[in-house]
Specification:
Rossmann fold, 6-stranded mixed barrel
Length: 785
């Protein structure tokens, strides 16, 4: 008998509402969290700590199921302090699941790792800041520190953090963008001169067609589903390209609609749903362009192409040289299916294309996204109402982090503005991204890791390599709300610094503070928590960063003073901590687009950061939008030994041929990024477990595998390192042959640290060549809360 349940026929509806309140009840702060939900994404409330989708600030309910989970996860009555750490050694905690670790509750006091006892022990805040300052001032180079940032950090915290790091002397700012939308920023900047999407939320009301590439909004951006539902009901044609058949992109019942909540009714979302093979989206988009150029040239916006673009002739030549045989083979779609999509695109007066990690985590991701941009340039579908490009960001302020300077490759203009205002000379050479930072820690070139939020140990690829790299740090500092895997990768010295969450009241000397964030539509708005902090010892992220900087720059420096020291000491870091409006004044004076910042965030809904490409102003070297004339790659598989292709055979050590399959890692519905809220994946029919492998039934039968059979998964890479995970239960699923899928972080050990996107250095988590064999593991351990 199968251990998984029936997949639902629609997403949302009453089950979504039931799940929402189930998590609120589990938080042990039911009354408070019900109040919190009424203030999520409201003008006088706080920004959802989940995804970065925008909101219209209208209506009593501006939250979704997974947003409610994020609120309940953060605002819990359970606490983790000195008694907990006295009972559990780091070695013991490392054996627990990620779910168990975070379910223990909120961190309530600063702790320091004792390598002799293998336990975290209490430390005062002043001692913690002194430990950090002493270590930073003893290093021989500022580039021996890695300043990692999570996408949940506010604009104010991110700005202060990058200012601290740059005045210290480094551009080592690895961040979560390096692992998700890096390719989007690079491709967009290359083509249209700005690394952000060009649409705003209202554009979706004016779109005649919306193309959704490589994205599962029902789980990852649920508020987007109400936008898609509204568009579909208005007659907009939604075309989906997704490797898996996801129920939310088929039918969605809005929990805010009484009829759809209480009856079987639901809205049909996708007009056309296509399932390309992993990495095949570039070929699919190339096929659409080929059809338009060769069969419907009247649909090309020749005026736009002539007035606003460059390299069209090169691109057109590249398209004509691409054969339909290669397009069909690489995309996994038929010519007829691609023509259907191309017809919708070319017949629509206004088109928006959205995408997420299904496009960005491949070897050729920059070119894949470039091909989507090409389609929009070809038909003039950019810079007008209801049309444009929309990379859908994950963490709630991941885009704002970049705007604030969390970037290992800062632009000259960004550094110029800081230098001029602060009268200093900041470093300009490129720093480390995530992969480079981990390699620097692994070789012990870097000595200190400071993480402003996030869970790098669970998020990064090649888990064994990542964990060893983090363990090599002479000081591992984690600024966090909850216990996670990153706190346990420590062998020398480490600090856990508990911070306030988005839902919590932030009181400083000047009064109650607000922070700001930037959503996926470049809207900057304020956020004010209302819940009493989990502990009196929890400080805001801004307070922690300010005190780290103040203590570091007022501490005796062992090495030669740097050129930035006078400016660093001149800044009144504690005054910035006491009044966040002063930080916003700094931002206003050093970052373009933030004039009257403090006044702007007082407006309902905040203010919009102008997008040059949305105005058809191209900030490229020749002031024109660039077509990307790249040919299709020979293979979409990244860094695989031999010339392996999916479906081909690889001979095992025992001499038995093994089929090579292409694996993608993804999230369950009870998960947001590395945070696991529960063990179910309701929309895919999975209950009570996470070690599952979604397979095409024909592939499984060819390998003599039965449903629910346990298998081991081993990846293939050029370095001959064995990367293997065991005990995964086979689930038959609607997925193209040759492709399989499983959850992360459980499958992160399979992604080689060297398997990254060309030009982006993003781990190739959506194209992992693997072989699977019957498992030697007999049981699956299911974590209990």
């Amino acid at each position: 008998m199968s251990s998984h349940s029936e997949k639902p026929t629609k997403a949302g509806g009453l089950p979504s509402l039931q799940a929402t309140f189930s998590h609120v009840l589990r938080s042990q702060r039911t009354k408070q969290n019900l109040k919190n939900l009424l203030r999520v994404n409201q003008t006088d409330g706080f920004d959802c700590p989940g995804c970065a989708w925008g909101d219209n600030k209208q209506g009593a309910f501006q939250f979704c199921e997974n947003g409610a989970k994020a609120v309940a996860w953060e605002s819990t009555g359970k606490g983790v302090g000195r008694e907990f750490f006295a009972q559990h050694s780091v070695r013991q905690l490392a054996k627990q699941t990620d779910y168990w670790l975070e379910y223990q509750g909120r961190l309530t006091e600063p702790m320091r790792f004792n390598a002799i006892t293998d336990h975290y022990e209490p430390v005062t805040w002043s001692e913690a800041f002194s430990i950090i300052a002493t270590k930073l001032n003893s290093l021989s180079s500022a580039d021996q520190v890695e300043f990692y940032t999570s996408g949940r950090a506010s604009n104010e915290a991110s700005y202060l953090y990058q200012l601290f790091g740059r005045l210290y002397g480094t551009n080592n700012f690895p961040d979560c963008s390096n692992m998700c939308h890096e390719a989007s920023g690079i491709a967009l900047t290359k083509s249209i001169g700005i690394g952000k999407g060009t649409v705003v939320l209202d554009d979706f009301d004016a779109a005649e067609a919306i193309f959704v590439f490589g994205q599962n909004p029902g789980t990852n951006h649920p508020r987007m589903m109400n936008t898609l539902r509204k568009a579909a009901k208005q007659g907009c044609k939604i075309v989906t390209f997704n490797n898996l058949k996801e129920v939310a992109l088929d039918k969605f019942a809005s929990p805010q609609s009484p009829i759809e909540l209480l009856t079987p009714a639901a809205t049909k979302i996708s007009h056309l749903y296509l399932t390309p093979t992993l990495g095949g989206d570039m070929a699919a988009a190339r096929g659409m362009a080929k059809f338009i150029i060769e069969q419907r040239p009247d649909k090309i916006d020749h005026d736009f192409v002539q007035q606003h673009s460059a390299f069209f002739d090169d691109y057109q030549r590249s398209v004509k040289q691409t054969s339909w045989d290669k397009i069909e083979q690489q995309s996994g779609l038929t010519k007829a299916e691609i023509i259907q999509a191309a017809t919708v695109f070319s017949d629509s007066k206004t088109v928006i294309s959205c995408w997420a990690m299904g496009l960005t985590q491949h070897k050729h991701s920059v070119d894949i996204i470039g091909e989507v941009i090409n389609l929009h340039l070809l038909c003039g579908q950019i810079g007008k109402k209801g049309a444009g490009l929309c990379p859908v960001r994950g963490h709630s302020n991941v885009q704002g982090n970049r705007t604030m300077g969390i970037n290992e490759k800062p632009s000259a203009d960004f550094i110029d503005r800081l230098d001029n205002y602060l009268a200093t000379t900041l470093p300009r050479q490129a720093g480390h991204n995530v992969v480079e930072a981990l390699k620097a820690l692994h070789t012990k070139h870097s000595k200190v890791l400071i993480c402003l939020g996030g869970n790098l140990a669970a998020a990064a690829p090649d888990s064994h390599f990542t964990h060893q790299a983090m363990n090599n740090a002479e000081l591992n500092v984690q600024i966090s709300t909850k216990l996670n895997r990153s706190h346990l990768q420590v062998s020398h010295d480490g600090l856990i610094l508990p911070c306030l969450g988005r839902t919590e009241l932030d009181k400083q000397q000047s009064g109650i503070q607000k922070i700001t964030v930037e959503d996926t539509f470049s809207m900057v708005h304020a956020s004010t928590g209302m819940t009493e902090p989990a502990s009196e010892q929890c400080l805001s992220e801004i307070d922690i960063v300010a005190q780290m900087a103040h203590t570091t720059f007022n501490h005796t420096r062992v090495i030669q003073p740097t050129a930035t020291d006078p400016a660093a000491r001149k800044l009144d870091w504690l005054a910035l901590r006491d009044d966040y409006a002063l930080i916003r004044n700094l931002i206003e004076n050093t970052i373009a687009g933030f004039s009257n910042y403090n006044q702007g965030v007082e407006q309902p809904g905040g203010f919009y950061l102008d997008n040059s490409a949305a105005q058809r102003v191209w900030k490229t070297d020749n002031q024109l939008a660039h077509f990307n004339a790249s040919m299709l790659p020979d293979s979409v598989i990244a860094d695989c030994s031999s010339n392996a292709q999916t479906g081909h055979s690889l001979t095992s050590q025992s001499g038995v041929p093994q089929a090579i399959l292409l694996l993608q890692s993804l999230r369950s519905h009870d998960q947001y990024n590395t945070t696991i809220y529960g063990m179910d994946d309701r929309y895919r029919g999975v209950k009570g477990k996470r070690n599952v492998l979604f397979m095409n039934q024909q592939d499984a039968e060819k390998l003599n595998l039965a449903e629910d059979q346990l298998v081991d998964i081993q990846s293939i890479a050029n370095d001959n390192i064995v990367r293997k995970v065991s005990g995964f239960s086979v689930i038959f699923y609607d997925i193209p042959r040759g492709n399989i899928a499983a959850y992360y972080p459980e499958t992160n050990p399979l992604v080689s640290i060297n398997s990254v996107g060309i030009g982006s250095d993003t781990p190739t988590s959506k194209s992992i060549p693997v072989v699977i064999t019957p498992s030697t593991k007999q049981v699956i351990n299911v974590a209990k809360g």
